[in-house]
Amino acid sequence: MDRIRSWLYIGKYRDTRDLDYLQSRNIGAMLQLAELVEQPDITALYLPVEDGEPIPINLLTQGIEFVRSQKALGKIVLVACGAGISRSSSFALAALKEEENLGLMEALREVATRHFDTQPHPELWNSLCGYYNEAIDYRKVMDLILEIRQP
Q: Which of 10, 62, 99, 129 has the most CB atoms around it within 10 Å of its CB?
């Protein structure tokens, strides 16, 4: 699990199952994209988003609104998918874009700098580009990720 902001973390499915670990990070809400895992005193929303497929607009909107509403309530939010690579990163960067009024590439830089596993699948990236009306070629995504990962 990696901290993106004081209120936002990205993690994996296994992180959602470890209550002690969640409590040690003061996680108060979880947006889950792999499977629903309920934990005491942690608000959870599961969205059936498939990796490698476009994100349905209603699910993207619902996920962003969930993260933002939980943040507004003062909760620390974990966004988790199976491996913590594509779906969770996509939703986290969308939430960060919304909260901080960033462009998609700026949000991607912020997320990827703090979570080295970040790599939105091209279909998920295209969903974000369509949703925000930002036409950014996926090669730029990979160039930025490779730049960040350089030693």
A: 10
pTM of the model: 0.95
CA dist 38 and 15 (Å) reads 12
Domains of the chain as residue ranges with CATH = 2-149 (3.90.190.10)
CA–CA separation, 79 vs 67, rounded Å? 8
Mean pLDDT of the chain: 96
Which H or E run includes 15?
helix 13-16
**Continuous segment of H or E residues that includes residue 125:** helix 122-132
pLDDT digits (tens, 9 = 90+) for 77-127: 999 999 999 999 999 999 999 999 999 999 999 999 999 999 999 999 999
Extract the tokens encoding 133.
Answer: 């009306």
Q: What angle do CA 63, 64, 65 make, to 5 degrees?
A: 90
In total, the chain counts a number of residues equal to 151
Q: State the DSSP code for 54.
A: P
Q: Give residues with Cβ within 8 angstroms of 69, minimum separation 6.
A: none
User: 3-state class of 141 per DSSP?
Assistant: helix
